[in-house]
Amino acid sequence: IPTFRRIMRNGSTEMFSGLPYIYSLLNCLICLWYGTPLISADNLLITTVNSIGAVFQFVYIILFLMYAEKAKKVRMFGLLLAVLGVFAIILFGSLQINDALTRRFFVGFLSCASLISMFASPLFIIKLVIQTKSVEFMPFYLSLSTFLMSTSFLLYGIFNNDAFIYVPNGIGTILGLIQLILYFYFESKSRENSREPLIVSYA
């Protein structure tokens, strides 16, 4: 929300990346499908959470498209259509599998892959943070919520003995922790630099 307040206030997406929202939408849709009784039993919590998540991601992507420059807007719109197309293929393809266990493994592996890609998407921002030595375009609350969400589902997957949930969320926990470490490291560095006295030369 703070990120999109800034985008709307400035009328520009600046150097913010739309990829985390695209990957998150794909992940929410696939995990939503994985949690339905047609795919796996006793996982309706996964469907509920990811349904809400998908609505949020749609809103974020629409706002991003409204304020992005033309080239970025076209790219984002293309990626959105690709995500919806991929999900439609997964939905239709999985329903063609008659064996329930095989269907669960098929959707489970895809949900695992989508989760990993979602958690890996901030790597683009991590690269930018290291290059610019600034956390300006890596929102703290997005990094924190990613870490808390992946840690919660890591524990949920362990307690339910569901590898399709705990394996990718274990990776997400590690990547989320890396983002938080980088945030505090470069944020403290920028504070130190701002406290350095100005040297004025009268020569």
TrEMBL record:
One of its GO terms (molecular function) is sugar transmembrane transporter activity. GO terms for cellular component: endomembrane system; membrane. It is a multi-pass membrane protein. The keyword Transport applies. It is found in: Endomembrane system. The keyword Metal-binding does not apply. The chain crosses the membrane at residues 21-39, 45-67, 74-93, 105-126, 138-159, 165-186. Keywords: Membrane, Repeat, Sugar transport, Transmembrane, Transmembrane helix, Transport. Its main location: membrane. It holds the Pfam family MtN3_slv. GO terms for biological process: protein homooligomerization. Belongs to the SWEET sugar transporter family. This is Protein RUPTURED POLLEN GRAIN 1. It comes from Cajanus cajan. The lineage of its organism: Eukaryota, Viridiplantae, Streptophyta, Embryophyta, Tracheophyta.
